[in-house]
Amino acid sequence: MAGTTRRVLLAIGLGWLGASALLADDVIERYDDGKIKERYATDAEGRKHGKYLAHHPNGKVAVRGQYKAGQLDGLQTYFWDSGKVRLKAEYREGKLHGAYAETDEKGNLLKEQVFWNDQLLYPKSGRQINEALNKIMGSFGIDAPGMIRGAAPRGNRRPGGQGGGAGPAGASTLRTTDHVVAQAAQAATDPLRDPTNLYALARLNAYRYLCDVPHDIKLDPAQCGSALAAAQLCARLGHLDHYPTNPGLPEDQFKKAYYGTSHANLAQGRATRGSVDMYMEDSDPSNIARVGHRRWCLNPSMVTTGFGESGEFSAMMVDSADRKDVPDYDYVSYPPRGLLPLDFFHYRHAWHVSVNPSHYAKPDPAAVKATVWPVRPGRNPTDADPERRAKEPLPLDHFNVSLDGCGIPNAVIFRPVLPGLKAGDRFWVEITGLKKTDGTAVTIAYMVEFMDL
CB of 406 within 8 A of CB of 163? Predict the structure, then answer.
């Protein structure tokens, strides 16, 4: 028979109950067949207090945890009815606080996170990041721990145009005329299999994965054609231009190229394989105010793209924004909250946060403020307590609020002054002065930690 059995016991010497109240009520609830469903103790006020045990109908343990004054407190372990662990989560006074890990019925890891006072600080573990990057990039001949194999090294920068306009500049790359012609022919005949395009696509999806936006972007042949035409037009002009005049091309050819230049990120000075890193940097004087190329790369609505290259000019189409399954994100940031491999960031890169227009009112540039504090390292990510932050925040050498429509139509852009970065460096970021769509004031706060792969 289903029912509840209660026994009043002295709290001292309860063994497995571990209650701390003077008196405790030992509660046993049963299924209809008499098997134990739950067993727990309560304190003198009738609240769950001490160790807690629940069983599946088949008799196997379903939950093993503990309470304190009616609230979850300490490690809670949940099991599948097969007996395998489903979830391990650490709580403090009813709030998620510490390590959190989910696995499926086969034991495969689904989530490995860290919470602090119910706030998700680390959405992904270093192990998950390593595995995901190897999966995203490894099949395209790209080393997850670093740059794409064969990419040109960084060199002198060539100034580009504005974000949403011309791309950031990169290292000069020398190419023979024969190589350029052969490459253009290969990209034109089979852009979906062109190794250069696949390299760039993998790098794009890697950045998107790290920044928690959909990372299943595909190459589209028509977009690759538009990107190639855009790059060829820039090569003919000898400079980057999103809205060029016709340099003497047949009208149909110019219209195709013009569509490409006006709907693409453009870059000069590095091959397509390294162009995505240039777009994500976006921190040179002509681009830092908007980081427009980066925001297009991280547009949650993007579905497909195309890449094209001609000589030292390259293009990436950003006109695909018809994703039907856009996640209900709160904000998109770079560097993102949680862990970020050093190979995907440089200490002189600008930081930015774009809030979801469906959740937030248009930011007021006069009211918004960004603050970044260094955080003293702990022994492991679960020690990542924001209260370890330094007394004084870092100075900023750039701050701006951009409200144009590059990807998400707003961005709070800032750059803390740093001497460099190394694995284990942690920072607490706060964006104040924001408002929800209903006018409620809100602060965005998150942890960033850099890691090695």
Answer: yes
